[in-house]
Amino acid sequence: MDTAGPLESIAKALPGLAPEAVESMLVTFDTLAALSDQGQRPGAAQFLRDAAALCQNAACSERLLRAG
User: Fold this and answer.
1) Average model confidence (pLDDT) across the chain
2) How many Å apart are CA 34 and CA 46, to the nearest integer?
3) Are 61 and 55 in contact (CB under 8 A)?
4) pLDDT-derived band of residue 37, with 50, 70 and 90 as boundaries?
5) What is the pTM of this model?
6) Residue 12 DSSP symbol
7) Cα 24 to Cα 1, 18, 27, 30, 38, distances in angstroms
8) How confident is the model at residue 20, as a pLDDT?
9) What is the spatial distance between Cα 53 and Cα 38, in angstroms, rounded to a whole number?
10) Reduced to 3 DSSP states, what percent helix, strand and coil does the chain have, rounded to the nearest 5?
11) Residue 7: burial class (beta carbons within 10 Å; 0-12, 13-18, 19+)
12) Which of 14, 28, 57, 67 is 20 to 30 A from 4 in CA distance terms?
């Protein structure tokens, strides 16, 4: 299943969310990534790393890097 578009949309929204909302959205992101084709996993991880670079909150950035 091609989930790249929705995964990218979620990742782009993460830097603007409150830290507690980031955790909730990461659960959704992970569930969607699990449904995607194996070949899309590296791209999903890159979406999270890109989002981490945009975070103003250092803890949020670190969390997204760990998730990616």
Assistant:
1) 93
2) 15
3) yes
4) confident
5) 0.90
6) H
7) 23, 10, 5, 10, 23
8) 87
9) 24
10) 85, 0, 15
11) buried
12) 57
